[in-house]
Design goal:
12 helices; about 325 residues; lipopolysaccharide heptosyltransferase II; Rossmann fold; glycosyltransferase; ADP-heptose-lipopolysaccharide heptosyltransferase activity; LPS_LOS_Heptosyltrfase; 2 domains; alpha/beta; Glyco_trans_9; six-stranded parallel beta sheet
């Protein structure tokens, strides 16, 4: 059967969608003439906007799939309901990792590898390889427009180093503390004086946190939290001299656009969700061995000691070298 129309049912989280972009690229390279659509949650569709390997982005609409007449579907999410939707839509080839509940709904159902033994991007690429698709050895994709780049240039001041702090995170144990960012900012401002500009980046929910950090820095930073799209943030990361962040979607976007970055990890795994295919001369990771199990993914942790063990002084020394 000639494959003319392909649907990729995406995963649900910003970082995971970004880690799926090598898979999308592999599908395009193996089916250069096919119409490729990605079905994704509305809150994260911006990650895939502008991606030249995709013809169409569908905000989750499982009821109207049948009329779209897809020949093949890849299910990156291990959901039963999404497999059922592909089956009900009459898509002839339905490819996804095996689970007991949905096995009868899939036409190709390879046994999943151990997801805890490999990077998330490799886990998704494994699905492509299992059905004979060729893959490359490149990193993740995030595409920005000329307009976004022009906007970012208005924030960057020629002659001053621009360092971006991304202090937020979707759960507290993954965050490097406010106090650490404040101390790091003070050291940078003391060392570089008027030759550095600190930008506090994040979503609208991070505004209060950014204001507290900026206040402690005598309002010498710029706050972009809640004022930018993901694309604008990515353009700013790309034009900056350094991005400093814990494990988060913005960190992985920064790495994807080729920014220099310091990645601070604690309760999550570098092996699974660390910077993917990053240039080690441009991206430095911190993760300390502790007397507790690391990674632990314990969102009820009381002391965050794995993150606290990473000091502003050692992050500064690395930042100074990268700058």
């Amino acid at each position: 059967m000639q494959v003319k129309r392909i649907l990729i049912a995406e995963v649900n989280w910003l970082g995971d969608v970004l880690f799926s972009t090598p898979f999308i690229r592999a599908v395009r390279n193996n089916f250069p003439d096919a119409h490729i659509a990605c079905m994704i949650m509305p809150r994260i569709r911006e990650i895939l906007e502008g991606n030249p390997y995709i013809n169409e982005i569908i905000t989750y609409d499982e009821k109207n799939l049948k009329k779209r007449k897809f020949d093949m579907a890849f299910l990156l999410h291990r959901s039963f309901s999404r497999a059922l939707a592909m089956y009900m839509a009459g898509i002839p080839e339905r490819i996804g990792y095996y689970t007991f509940k949905r096995s009868l709904l899939l036409t190709e159902k390879p046994k999943p590898p151990d997801a805890l033994s490999m990077h998330r991007a490799e886990f998704y690429l494994g699905l492509a390889k299992s059905v004979g698709l060729k893959t490359d050895n490149k990193g993740c994709d995030f595409f920005i427009s000329k307009q976004d780049s022009v906007w970012a240039a208005t924030v960057i001041q020629p002659g001053r180093k621009t360092v971006i702090f991304n202090p937020g995170g979707n759960w507290m144990p993954k965050r490097w503390s406010k106090e650490n960012f404040i101390e790091l900012g003070r050291i940078l401002l003391s060392e570089f004086k008027d030759n550095i500009r600190i930008v506090l980046s994040g979503s609208a929910k991070d505004v209060e946190l950014a204001q507290e950090i900026n206040s402690a820095l005598q309002n010498k930073a710029i706050i972009t939290c809640g004022k930018t799209t993901l694309k604008q943030s990515a353009a700013l990361f790309k034009k900056s001299d350094l991005v400093i962040s814990a494990d988060s979607g913005p960190l992985h976007i920064a790495v994807s656009v080729g920014a220099k970055a310091i990645a601070i990890f604690g309760p999550t795994s570098l092996k699974i969700t660390g910077p993917y295919k990053a240039d080690k001369d441009r991206v430095v990771t911190f993760c300390k061995d502790m007397d507790c199990r690391i990674p632990c993914y314990n969102d009820k942790c009381a002391d965050y000691k794995c993150m606290a063990a990473i000091t502003p002084k050692e992050v500064f020394e690395t930042a100074k070298r990268l700058l």
